[in-house]
Amino acid sequence: MESIDAAYELIATLYAIEFQDMASAERAMTISLALAELGEDRSWASVWWAFGALHHDLSDEAFERALEMLGNVSEPAPACAAALMLAAEIRLTQAAYRDEDPDQAAQVDALTEAAKLAPNWPSLRVRLARALAAVGDAEAARTHAEAAIALMPSEPSGDPFDVAITGAGLRSGWAADELRALDLLSS
User: Fold this and answer.
1) pTM value?
2) Is residue 67 part of a domain?
3) DSSP assignment of the chain, as one string?
4) What CA–CA distances, in Å, run from 135 to 84, 94, 105?
5) Most buried of the four, 31, 59, 69, 100, by CB within 10 Å?
6) For 24-47, what is the mean pLDDT?
7) Is residue 160 a contact partner of residue 16, using CB atoms and an 8 Å limit?
8) What is the pLDDT of residue 5?
9) Residue 132 and residue 140: Cα distance in Å, rounded?
10) Nearest Cα to Cα of residue 126 among 81, 77, 182
11) Per-residue pLDDT tens digits for 50-68
12) Are 129 and 142 in contact (CB under 8 A)?
């Protein structure tokens, strides 16, 4: 199990250095896919592969495969939350690429379920606030926006998982900047 944990730490680290070396993201996706195909903790392997599909590959084929892989994530709760969040983001991205309106109600449903599983993830709360605002629930959107701000640590964690998935590894003003851009927070 220790070697599997080391593999996932390597994957997260490779994604964290993505802007310095795009080949790192490709290596992370290759390792994730190999782990999934070998049956090693398919939940986390699927989450990390889908993250790569969303942030690096961006092809229709990768999105469809990512959604299929994410649909099989069943435990642990953080992996399930990440899977729901990533699937919602992939569907939002697919709609944008197709110049279609995304199904915002489905976004709210998926992100609400994810927030139940991972209530302390700032990035999840930002996404949920955005989706709630899109369906016209301004009060709930502001509630989640305020929660996102409150959840941001004063010092980023430095953990690659927190940078990539939870948002707790991002600079402290990140969530406020995102939410102000959406007019969900006052200046």
Assistant:
1) 0.85
2) no
3) -HHHHHHHHHHHHHHHTTTT-HHHHHHHHHHHHHHHHHTS-HHHHHHHHHHHIIIII--HHHHHHHHHHHTT---SHHHHHHHHHHHHHHHHHHHHHTT----HHHHHHHHHHHHHH-TT-HHHHHHHHHHHHHTT-HHHHHHHHHHHHHHS-SS----HHIIIIISTTS-TTHHHHHHHHTT-S--
4) 19, 19, 7
5) 69
6) 78
7) yes
8) 75
9) 7
10) 182
11) 998 998 888 999 999 999 9
12) yes
Token digits of residue 69: 């892989």
Token code pair at residue 73: 């994530």
In a domain, 109, yes or no: yes
Choose among 169, 168, 109: nearest CA to 134. 109
Residue-range definition of the domain harbouring residue 34: 1-62
- Are 4 and 39 in the same domain? yes
22 and 84 fall within a common domain: no
With tokens 């709930």, the residue in question is: 140
115-173 pLDDT tens trace: 999 999 999 999 999 999 999 998 999 899 889 888 988 888 878 788 888 988 887 77
Contact (Cβ atoms closer than 8 angstroms) between residue 131 and residue 107: yes
Tokens for 149, please give them: 């701000």
Read off the tokens for 40: 């090693």
